[in-house]
Amino acid sequence: MTTKFFVMFLLFIWLCSTMNVAVADIGTAATYQPPYAPTKCGGNRRDQFPPGNMFIAVGEGLWDNGAACGRKYRLKCLSGSNKPCKGGTIDVKVIDFCPKCSSTIVMSNDAFSSVSNASDRIIVEYIQL
Ligand SMILES: *[C@@H]1O[C@H](CO)[C@@H](O)[C@H](O)[C@H]1NC(C)=O
């Protein structure tokens, strides 16, 4: 009886830790202005820009010494001043490094305006795809 319970408990813990891998992170996002090229990932290549200009540049925290190039994130606006979030998620691609960013990421004008109507920083939830 107690052994059964213990095994169930272990299974529960294991399930929780497996699912934790998919838990999203929370950070801040702002938008940045064109020109967007050259970038640290693709220089002046035109094909680095994903359809709809759904791209971002990341700060030191996510840059991963350049390994971040091409990574895709699904992100969602959580909050900001004046209820800026439009709801829904977008998928964005990392194309650049933003060494002096005070936010976790900066988004293209198109990406930023598709999730919020803010003119300043927003809080976002993101998960790597
Ligand atoms: C957009 O901005 C206005 C205020 O400037 C706000 O009232 C509105 O709720 C905002 N949010 C959305 C999703 O449009």
TrEMBL record:
Gene3D superfamilies reported in the protein's UniProt record: RlpA-like domain (2.40.40.10)
Signal peptide bounds: 1-24
CDD domains the record matches: DPBB_EG45-like
Residue ranges constituting the Expansin-like EG45 domain according to the UniProt record: 38-129
Keywords: Signal
PANTHER family, per database record: EG45-LIKE DOMAIN CONTAINING PROTEIN, EXPANSIN-LIKE EG45 DOMAIN-CONTAINING PROTEIN
Protein name, UniProt field: Expansin-like EG45 domain-containing protein
Organism, scientific name: Kalanchoe fedtschenkoi
